[in-house]
Design brief:
The protein is built from 15 helices and 15 strands. It has helices at 12-16, 25-34, 38-41, 64-79, 84-87, 93-104, 118-132, 147-159, 174-177, 200-209, 301-316, 319-340, 368-377, 401-416, 423-426; strands spanning 44-45, 51-52, 61-62, 112-115, 138-141, 165-168, 182-188, 213-217, 236-239, 253-257, 347-348, 360-364, 380-381, 383-385, 389-393. The longest helix is centred in the C-terminal third of the chain and has 22 residues, at 319-340. It is globular and about 70 Å long. It binds pyridoxal-5'-phosphate.
C-alpha cells in the first residue's frame, strides 16, 4: 500500500507518496497531463471508451502501421516485385530490426535477429546450447514456466534419444540446482502469470560458475522492464514481437546470441537463409559466420514491417520514463485494488514490491473467468490465465493513469454487484 501524504511530489512519485484512498480521478488526470510519454499515446489507435490493459498479450495498433504496410504492399511488393529484396533491403530486414531491438535489451549490433516465432527460436537456441555443452544432459527450468517453453524443451528431449533431459525445480531452488550436469538454464525473465522477475545477473553468474549456459525468454520484459543482456553476460535470449513491442498479432519474434558464441553455436534448422552464401545454391550447408546462421527460411516481410513500426515507437520513448511509468501504473493498480476492492475475494498473485515485478499484475479470484468477461463487456480488457487468474498489463507507451482508475472502478462495480454472475460470462472461449 502506498503511504504518507506528500502532495508536493510530482510525476509517478506523486503516487508513491500518496495513500491510494486519498487519490482522485482528477489527481490521475493531472499526472497524465504531466506525463513525458503523453504524446506517444497519440501514436496509437485506441478506441474511446475502451481501457486496454492487455498489451502484455497483444500490444495496441500504432497509427502508422496500416499506412506503412500499405506502402510496402503497393510500392515495394506491387511495383518493385522481386527487385525489392535488394532495392528495399528486404534481405537485411531481420538484422536491421534485430539491431533496433538489441538497443532495448542491452545487446550489441549483430547480436539479435528477427525470425520465426518465439517457440521456434527457443528450439533453435536450446539445441544450440545443448550442442555447446556435450556430456551435460540437463535443461534446467522451473515448473509453471510458460508451458510453451517447457513443451519445446520436451520436444527436444524426445528427439535426443535420451541424451537430453528437462529437469524442473521450483524458482527458489534454481541456483542451487545448477551443477555440472546442466547444459543450459531456461527461464522466463518476467513470469507470464505472476510477473515475478528473476535476477538475471545473479542467475547467469551462477550458471557460468558451474559451466552452464543460460537462455532467457524476454517475452514479458522487452520494452517494459530494464533488461541488459550483455551487462549480465547472458548467452542466449528469445522474445515475442506482439506484446509490448506492438508488432501485431503473430508478429515475428527475435533471438539473441552473444557474440562470443556466434562462431561455435549451430542452429538445428539449417535453412538456406542461414547459409554463408545462400545464392550460391550449393548442395552442402555452410553456416553464415555471424548471427545470420540462426535465420532459416524466407523472412515474413510484412510482419517485420509492422514490427519495425512498433519497435521504432518504443525507441522514441525515453527508456527511464518508460520504466518509471510502467512501475507507477502497476503500483497504482495494486494500491487502488487494495483500497477500492477490499473484501471482494481478490488475492494478489504478483509480487507486492515493484522491483520484483514486471509490467503486469495477476489477481486471483474464484470466478476469475466470469469477472474478466464482465469487465470486457464494460470495455475494460485484460485476460484470464487458468485456473483462476485475471491478468492486467500496463503498457507505458499508451496506458494513462486515468485508465487505471477506470479499470479498478469497473472491477469494483463488477464485484460489488456480482455483475459477473450471468450465463453469458461463464461461457469459455477458445482463446483466453
Ligand atoms: C513467455 C512466453 N514465451 C513464449 C511465448 C510464445 O511465443 P510465440 O507465440 O511467438 O511462439 C509466449 C506467448 O505468449 C510467452 O508469453
Amino acid at each position: 500500500m502506498v503511504t504518507g501524504g506528500c502532495d508536493s511530489a510530482r510525476g509517478p512519485d506523486a503516487i508513491r507518496h500518496r495513500s491510494a484512498g486519498t487519490l482522485t480521478l482528477a489527481d490521475l488526470e493531472a499526472l497524465d497531463r504531466d506525463d513525458p510519454l503523453r504524446d506517444v499515446r497519440d501514436a496509437f489507435l485506441l478506441t474511446d471508451g475502451v481501457v486496454y490493459l492487455d498489451g502484455n498479450s497483444l500490444g495496441a495498433l500504432p497509427r502508422a502501421t496500416p499506412a506503412r504496410l500499405q506502402e510496402v504492399c503497393a510500392r515495394q511488393w506491387g511495383e518493385g516485385l522481386i527487385r525489392s529484396w535488394t532495392a528495399h533491403d528486404w534481405i537485411g530486414a531481420p538484422q536491421r530490426v534485430g539491431d533496433k531491438i538489441a538497443r532495448l535489451i542491452g545487446a550489441g549490433p549483430a547480436e539479435v535477429v528477427v525470425a520465426d516465432s518465439t517457440s521456434v527460436n527457443l528450439f533453435k537456441l536450446l539445441a544450440a546450447a545443448c550442442h555447446l555443452r556435450p556430456g551435460r544432459p540437463l535443461i534446467l527450468s522451473e515448473p509453471g514456466n510458460f508451458p510453451n517453453d517447457l513443451y519445446v524443451a520436451q520436444g527436444l528431449q524426445g528427439l535426443s534419444s535420451g541424451r537430453i533431459e528437462l529437469r524442473l525445480v521450483p524458482a527458489g531452488q534454481i541456483e542451487a540446482a545448477i551443477d555440472e550436469q546442466v547444459a543450459v538454464v531456461l527461464l522466463t525473465h518476467v513470469h507470464y502469470k505472476s510477473a515475478a522477475v528473476h535476477d538475471m545477473t545473479r542467475i547467469t553468474e551462477r550458471a557460468h560458475a558451474r559451466g552452464a549456459l543460460i537462455l532467457w525468454d524476454l517475452s514479458h520484459s522487452a520494452g517494459a522492464v530494464p533488461v541488459d543482456l550483455n551487462a549480465a553476460q547472458a548467452d542466449f535470449a528469445v522474445g515475442c514481437g506482439y506484446k509490448y513491442l506492438n508488432g501485431g498479432p503473430g508478429a515475428p519474434a527475435y533471438l539473441f546470441v552473444a557474440r562470443r558464441h556466434q562462431a561455435a553455436a549451430i542452429s538445428p534448422i539449417t535453412g538456406w537463409l542461414g547459409h554463408a552464401r545462400p545464392f550460391d545454391f550449393v548442395d552442402e550447408y555452410a553456416p553464415a559466420p555471424g548471427i545470420e546462421r540462426f535465420l532459416a527460411g524466407s523472412h515474413p516481410i510484412l510482419g517485420i514491417t509492422a514490427l519495425e513500426v512498433g519497435v521504432d515507437l518504443m525507441l522514441q520513448a525515453d527508456a527511464r520514463s518508460r520504466i518509471e511509468k510502467s512501475r507507477a501504473l502497476s503500483e497504482l493498480f495494486i494500491s487502488l485494488v487494495e483500497s477500492r476492492c477490499a473484501g471482494q475475494g481478490l488475492e494478489l498473485a504478483s509480487p507486492r514490491s515493484a522491483e520484483a515485478r514486471g509490467s503486469h499484475v495477476a489477481l486471483r479470484h474464484a470466478q476469475a473467468w466470469a469477472v474478466m468477461q464482465a469487465l470486457i463487456a464494460r470495455g475494460v480488457i485484460g485476460d484470464f490465465r487458468a485456473p483462476d487468474a485475471m491478468r492486467f498489463g500496463f503498457a507505458p507507451l499508451y496506458n494513462r493513469y486515468a485508465d487505471i482508475w477506470h479499470g479498478v472502478e469497473a472491477l469494483r462495480d463488477v464485484l460489488h454487484g456480482a455483475a459477473w454472475d450471468r450465463p453469458e460470462f461463464r461461457q469459455r472461449h477458445a482463446v483466453t
